[in-house]
Design goal:
The chain has helices at residues 3-19, 153-163, 165-183, 185-205, 222-226, 236-244, 298-309, 314-327, 372-375, and strands at residues 24-26, 29-31, 35-43, 50-56, 61-66, 73-78, 84-94, 99-108, 113-116, 118-123, 128-133, 143-144, 147-151, 256-260, 266-270, 276-279, 288-294, 336-343, 348-349, 354-355, 359-366, 388-390, 398-400. It contains nine helices and 23 strands. Bound molecules: copper (II) ion (CU).
């Protein structure tokens, strides 16, 4: 490596390190017309606590709600159309060396561009730091404004479509079925019936395509609820016994297990001495789904659960985690194993610890940022035993085995 390349890399590293200690808004990138939950990340950079944070929203972002936050009061300002133009959180404290996050719900109403927020961070003692500079590079005596990039609809749509092909196919089938049954009388009804059957099969398969297999225990799916799960978690012992069967037998006994308290809260049920972390079946989901993964993946998985609990899902969740990986806040391993087991509702009998005959075990190895070029793997399944790489080139890159694509 020559020196100019090395210094470029060092400079880049320095920028990333600096960036991690700024007031930021994520996701950093959002599609034009997109919306959802945004997070304001506020690190305390002084030896005294942050006691107030004010954010002024850019034009082009329509903010509808501020998430309630324990210990903090949010005072909002609105324009004549009732859109929230600014919010000031106060009443809480973010101690030295700590950070906190504040959430709001918004929709982008702007063409592809950069939107800058104005943020004012007030410390105990009264000092206020203005994060308002949009100059690049940021002048020494100033602080950069949190910015997000609005991307064109088309590119994002393509990605979303690729990721959600099951959902999209299901929707098309459903629509086609509806159209046919309306147009074609009896024959049409038969075809439509078949299509609806395929639709049901896809709907059943769709949860299997959950993007990181294991990280969704706190999500409540409307479709799963329709199948009337009890919503009541089993005893800790039952949940532990059910969770660990996702892993090979020699990794079960000393695994750490996360699951549900009687009130439904997601908690640690057992602290293990081993390398695996297992997730109990979600009582709010109809299907039986358990997973075990290597502890090195926990920062990534835990952050995914946290974001899901905050209502940040799908690509915004990916985007938040990607930027946190880039900034070093989430550490990723070189490789980490994941075992999942999915089956229909009632397949696992907690009393006997027995599974039914039809289960869908999916094993994979996370290899963050590995690519087709860096591994010599294919990006699609071919036969019963050839490994292949999914989500190549991303934080979620993982090697899968066999023919199924889950
Ligand atoms: Cu996969």
């Amino acid at each position: 490596m020559n020196t100019s390349r090395l210094s470029a890399i060092l400079a880049l590293t320095a920028v990333v390190l600096l960036a991690s200690a700024h007031v930021t808004v994520s996701p950093r990138e959002i599609v034009s017309k997109g919306g959802g939950v945004f997070l304001v990340n506020v690190p305390t950079e002084r030896p005294v606590a942050t006691v107030k944070i004010r954010v002024e929203f850019p034009e082009g972002l329509r903010v509808s709600r501020i998430r309630a936050k324990a210990g903090w009061t949010a005072a909002v300002e609105r324009d004549t159309s009732k859109a929230i133009t600014a919010v000031t959180w106060s009443g809480g404290k973010i101690g030295p060396d700590e950070f906190d996050e504040f959430a709001f719900n918004a929709r982008v109403n702007a063409p592809p561009s950069k939107l800058a927020f104005k943020a004012y961070q007030t410390y105990e003692g009264g000092e206020t730091v203005a994060w308002t500079s949009t100059d690049t590079p940021t002048p020494k005596d100033q602080h950069p404004a949190p910015q997000i990039t609005i991307t064109p609809v088309q590119s994002k749509y393509a990605t979303a479509a690729r990721e959600n092909w099951l959902g999209a196919t299901a929707m098309l089938l459903g629509f086609a079925a509806l159209t046919m049954s309306m147009r074609n009388g009896r024959n049409g009804k038969k075809v439509a019936g078949l299509m609806l059957f395929a639709l049901a099969a896809l709907a059943a398969a769709a949860p299997l395509a959950a993007q990181d297999h294991a990280a969704r225990p706190v999500a409540v799916h409307a479709d799963a609820q329709a199948a009337a799960p009890t919503g009541r978690p089993g005893t800790a012992a039952e949940q532990i016994a059910g969770a660990v069967i996702a892993a090979p037998p020699e990794l079960r006994d000393d695994a750490t297990v996360l699951g549900y308290a009687p009130d439904g809260k997601f908690i640690q049920l057992r602290k293990g001495t081993g390398d695996m972390i297992c997730l109990a079946d979600d009582p709010k989901e109809a299907r039986f789904h358990v997973a075990c993964y290597h502890k090195s993946l926990e920062p990534f998985m835990a952050r995914g659960r946290e974001l899901t609990a905050q209502g940040v899902e799908g690509w915004p969740r990916d985007s938040v985690r990607n930027s946190e990986i880039a900034s070093g806040r989430i550490k990723m391993p070189a490789a980490g194993g994941l075992y999942t087991l999915t089956a229909r509702a009632g397949c696992y009998d907690a009393a006997t610890g027995k599974l039914c005959d039809h289960t869908n075990p999916v094993h994979s190895v996370y290899v963050p940022f590995a690519s087709i070029e860096s591994t010599g793997l294919l990006d699609h399944p071919t036969d019963e035993h050839t490994p292949f790489l999914m989500n190549a080139g991303t934080a979620k890159a993982h090697i899968m085995f066999g023919k199924h694509e889950h």
